[in-house]
Each structure stands twice: as C-alpha cells, then as structure tokens.
Amino acid sequence: MTVTHDLAGVIATDKQLWRDFEAICDCGGRLAGTTSEAYAFAHVTAQGTAATGVEGQSIPVPYGGWSPRAATVTLAGGAKAPCQPLVRSVATPPGGLEAEVVDLGRGTPEEFAAHAADIKGRIVLVRHELMFVAGTIHRRRKYLSAMEAGAVGFLIAGPVPGKLVAGSSGRQDGGGIPAAGIAPETAAALQRTARGWPLVKLEIETVEQPTETQTLLFDLPGRSDDWIVLSAHIDGHDGGESAMDNASGVATALAAARALAPHVKSFRRGVRLAFFSVEEWALTGSAQYVKALSIAERQRIALNVNLDSVGGSPNLAALTSGFGHLEPFLLGVAEASGIALRTVRPLMQNSDHANFALAGIPAMRLVAGFDDPNANLRYVLTPADTRDKVQEPELKQAATLAANIVAAACAASDAEATAWRGSTSAA
Ligand SMILES: [Zn+2]
Asked: Which of 16, 168, 346, 417 has the fewest C-beta atoms lying within 10 Å of its C-beta?
C-alpha cells in the first residue's frame, strides 16, 4: 500500500478545517428540526461547494418532527430536578406521570430479568454507558426492555456531574413511554430505601408534526460509475455544541474532500461526499438514502467511509461492520500514512455506516477514543460535548487518514473491492 498523493501535506496547512469545526459548533447543538440544524446545513452547503467545486444535491428527508416544550422530574419531597426528554419521547398525560422508580443499575438483561416482577407500572431507571466500547448496551435496547416489561416511564442517568444526558428513544410513530435523561445527582436521589421505591412525578410536554430535513450530496465523478461514499452526520442534540459528535466528523469530511477534489477525475472511482441528518433519530436520514438505492446502485458503492466523533482522543479505530476483508486494506493505508489504527469488527448500529452495511455495502465508521473510558468521548451526548474537548491535530490526523483511505479505495482494483464485500462476520 502506497500513498500516492500528498494529501497529508495539503491537510497539514488547511486552516479551513478548524474554522469549519468552530463554525459548526457555533450553530449550537443542531437538534433536527431546529434553526441550529438549518444554520449548520447552510454552512455545509457553502463549504461543500467550496471544497468540491460542485453544487450540492439536496434530497428531501421527511420524518416525524418532534420538539420538547417542557420537562421536569418532581421528587417525593417536592424538589424539582431538570430532565431532558429523549428524542421522540411521548408526552406524559396532563398533570404528569406519577409512579415509583425501579433502579436497574446499568440496565443489563440480567437486571431486567431479575426485576421482571418489579417493573410493571413503575418507571425504570438505568445508566448511560460509554458508547465506544465493546459490549456496550445501547440505550434503545434498555428502553425497549423497559417497555416490554410493562414500565410506564424510562429515566437514564448521565455520567457527568451536574449535567443531563441526551439521546434518542428510538421510537418512530405510535406507542411508547415517556423517556428522559437526568443528571447523576437526580439518580442518586432516587435510590430505593427501607420505605420502598421512591415516588416521582415526571412531566414532559412535546409537539409532534410531520416535517422534513435533507441529505446533502456532492459528487466528484471518477473514471467509472463506481463510488466511495464519504459521510458524516450534521445533526446533534440540544444543550451544547455536539462538538465531538459530530462537528468533528463534518469538518473532517470537508477537509478530506478539499484535499481529494483536485485528484478525483483521475481516480478509478468517484467520491460522493454525503451529509446526513436525523442520525440521532435512529439513523433515519441514511436509512432513507440507502433504501432508495437500486440494487445496481448499491453494487456501485465500493465503500462507505463514515466519520462520526473523530476528535476528542488521538486514538483512532475503524469499526468494520463485519467486513473483515476490509481490515488488511485499512491497516495498510494507516501504516502507509504513519497513523496508528485499530480495527473493531462487530457490526455496531451506532451511526450511518450501519445502514450501508445492512444493505451489503462495505462500510466502516472512523471513531476516536474507542475502548478508552478516559477519552473525552465520555462527554458525548452531554452538554459538555464542547469544542474545548477537541484538538486541531486530532482532526488533521483523522482527515489525513480518511482522505488516504478514500483515495486508496478509489484506486483499488475491482478484484480487491469485490473481496471487501465478502462478509466474515458469520464465520
Ligand atoms: Zn454521531
């Protein structure tokens, strides 16, 4: 594996990378449906054209719009604590939802099973986990387990003192239970005592109506009809800057595209720069994009390189979604780039690459700080996901690696690209 263009040199002197990162953070948390998300799309539309020299193509993405209006938890003594409704949480009934709270700790299947008889009619309390480690249990699985066991509400406690935690309930339309993130101090006040399970009143007001966002594509054709899709999601959560997740990936994708753009015409495959939204809503934007592709179009995508949370730690991992044959290729590019990379194979449905992978398209997510509980990535989904957690050299390193992966994937022989499609996960 050789690196044939000095993409690293171009990215090393790219001042726009950090400017884009700050500008996207300046938009705010970018919850889908807010003006904050719209500002970010305006910036990326302009910078995507500046980076690639082509006009963006905007594909409408209809989805079930949702916004929170008010939310509180009232403790037994009458004290009120703030909470953050999970995305697409249903509202509580008029007057609020009064129920006892069952603390299930982390919320493992064992804890749900052991408390099966305690859950019905109560509110389940679990803990938010570091997402970027093997064996993490996704919030949506815990939410579904609570619902299935007959819980009437769902609380998830964040890891950062004094801070709420955000996330999606995973609910689409129809039924669900009210669900909210709380601070660890509130969880501590909801411990079971000798008097029994603590009683709380949960109040969540929401507005729901059909709405629309977009997927934004910039196509740089190569010499064939085949593509490498370089993607990042623009949306985030209220209450902070969603800096690591995912201003880092958006700014890095733009920088990689800027470095690649002058060369793509001579590549075997083209580069499609894709910006998705409603990623934080159960990967909705990329799901619609992949679903709309014909089988032939899917065949023509050789690889999806998805950048999500690529700052906050200098240590990079490639989540290869079960495509084990991709790993020697990725490691070869990383070595040639002088950048340390580890590969993690199980399919993780934690970002847009998962929709490509589920459709049989080789897909990887580049992520920083995987398996490192001390990395700044532990602040993701909290209001502490701010720009000060990210260093410019981290983004430059991620952009260099992403650009070199995309360039090498564009140049790879058809035989090699075909080999990537062979799944190793079942072996
Ligand atoms: Zn993300």
From this structure: 346
CB count within 10 Å of CB 393 equals 11
Q: How far is the CA of 86 from the centre of ligand 1 (A)?
A: 15
Asked whether 234 and 183 are in contact (CB, 8 A), the reply is no
Q: How far is the CA of 275 from the centre of ligand 1 (A)?
A: 12
Tokens (6 digits) for 164: 């709420």
The DSSP annotation for 130-142 comes to -SSSTTPPPHHHH
Residues 397-420: tens digit of each pLDDT: 999 999 999 999 999 999 999 999
Distance 93 CA to ligand 1 centre (A): 31
Q: Are 14 and 259 in contact (CB under 8 A)?
A: yes
- Span from the CA of 381 to the centroid of ligand 1 (angstroms): 9
Output the CA 147–ligand 1 centroid distance in Å.
Answer: 25
Which pLDDT tens digit goes with each residue over 330-377?
999 999 999 999 999 999 989 999 999 999 999 999 999 999 999 999
Residue 290 clears pLDDT 50, i.e. is over it? yes
- Which DSSP category does 196 fall into? B
**321 CA from centroid of ligand 1 (Å):** 16
| Residues whose CB is less than 8 angstroms from the CB of residue 68 and which lie 6 or more positions away in sequence, other chains included | 84, 85, 89, 204, 205, 206, 238
